[in-house]
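Researcher: Here's the sequence for the chain we discussed earlier.
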Amino acid sequence: MFRHGLRVTEACEMRWDAISLLDKEIFITRKKGSDNGVHPLPADEVEALTKL
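Model: Thanks. This is the structure I predict for it:
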């Protein structure tokens, strides 16, 4: 959450289809009027999500 600046509600509403492990990126749907966008996933996050 910290690395991507997620609010609690944004993290709770995150879906697996927003994550692309092949492209190593995550699509974040923002709340409170901020811009939605794609964020790169560092190697340690890809590894942790793969294990999860």
